[in-house]
Design a protein that fits this description.
The protein is an alpha/beta fold. The chain has one domain: TIM Barrel (Alpha-Beta Barrel), CATH 3.20.20.70. The protein is built from 10 helices and 12 strands. The strands form 2 sheets. Strands 1-4-5-8-9-10-11-12 form an 8-stranded parallel beta barrel, surrounded by 7 helices. The protein starts with 9 loop residues before the first strand and ends with a helix.
Length: 319
């Protein structure tokens, strides 16, 4: 049987800000930083989403963009942060209230150093120290952020930081007192230290320099991803993500055949640009998007996190 892509398979990633107007993202067109507007109701985003919902869009994933970045990413869960404001606005608007609202849980969009967690100094005595991630405090910080998003209306939190043990810490925090045990966790289980994230970093105004090879997975590794799969499921993950997607169909297939969790793949910003530039230059954008995204379904993914969601919803009736 030929693989089939349904609108319910799509998750649309969106960047939200507290700006009064929307802002195009250079080099990542037609994606936008969606502003909250003068009334903080994200009116233009609602207008953008309404026809997509009519075509079958069911899920979105929010990423916040802020100006006042700090060492500990204080704006990640501040009551005025754009993700929290947007969750409240979308869940209370009849036009968008039926959407499944997902929220990225990480600190990289909010830290002045651009790393995904709290930093600490290490180094031999008498020699220059270096900054590294402090794993345990970072996990607790991420759990606090996840609970803040759950309170604001998130149905699913999506930790993308790659800290060891963060799924269990977040699950325990959500389940405390039974308040948010209904909120699901979509774990970034295989997230490679890839070269494919540059447009995303521009989209969130990241201050990051260097690399994340100490906590993201090596691009050639498979065993570490499978170990993370077992760990994340044991700790309470409801879904697992392979990110990037197009170069990692083998991992998607392994995740799908070795677990009972739905497997999501994230067609990341660099993959988006690669496909769009080729499709636009050759006049075959629909064909290249169809071939690449169907290949992920064929590999075993049941969820596609993709910036092409609006175009796919337009094209699906003839696929």
């Amino acid at each position: 049987m030929e693989p089939h892509l349904h609108p319910s398979s799509l998750v649309y990633p969106l960047f939200v800000t507290n700006n009064s107007i929307d802002k195009p993202i250079p080099g990542f067109s037609p994606n936008m930083q969606w502003g909250s507007g003068e009334d903080s109701n994200f009116t233009t985003l609602v207008t953008h989403l309404t026809p997509l919902i009519a075509r079958g869009l069911r899920s979105i994933m929010l990423f916040g963009v802020v100006d006042n970045k700090t060492p500990n990413g204080d704006m990640a869960d501040d009551k005025s942060t754009p993700v929290i404001s947007c969750l409240k606005a979308l869940s209370s608007n009849p036009a968008t209230s039926q959407l499944m609202l997902m929220a990225d849980v990480c600190m990289c969009e909010y830290t002045d150093h651009g790393h995904c967690g709290v930093l600490r100094k290490i180094g031999p005595e008498g020699k220059e120290e270096e900054d590294v991630i402090d794993n345990i405090p970072t996990c607790h910080r991420l759990a606090t952020i996840a609970v803040a998003y759950a309170k604001a209306g998130a149905h699913c939190v999506c930790p993308s930081d790659m800290m060891d043990g963060r799924i269990g810490t977040i699950r325990a925090a959500l389940d405390a007192n039974g308040k948010y045990s209904h909120v699901s966790i979509m774990a970034y289980t295989s997230k490679k230290a890839s070269c494919m994230y540059s447009p995303f970093r521009a989209a969130v105004d990241s201050t990051f320099t260097g690399d994340r090879k100490r906590y993201q997975q090596p691009i050639g590794a498979t065993g570490i991803g499978l170990r993370a799969l077992k760990r994340d499921i044991k700790e309470g993950a409801d879904y697992v993500i392979v990110k990037p997607a197009l170069f990692y169909a083998d991992l998607i297939h392994q995740f799908a055949t070795q677990s009972d969790r739905p497997v999501a793949c994230y067609i990341v910003s660099g993959e988006y640009k690669m496909l769009k530039d080729y499709g636009d230059s050759c006049g075959c954008l629909e064909d290249v998007v169809k071939e690449s995204h169907i290949s992920m379904i064929r590999s075993g993914a049941s969820i596609l996190i993709t910036y092409f969601a609006p175009e796919i919803l337009n094209w699906l009736p003839r696929w």
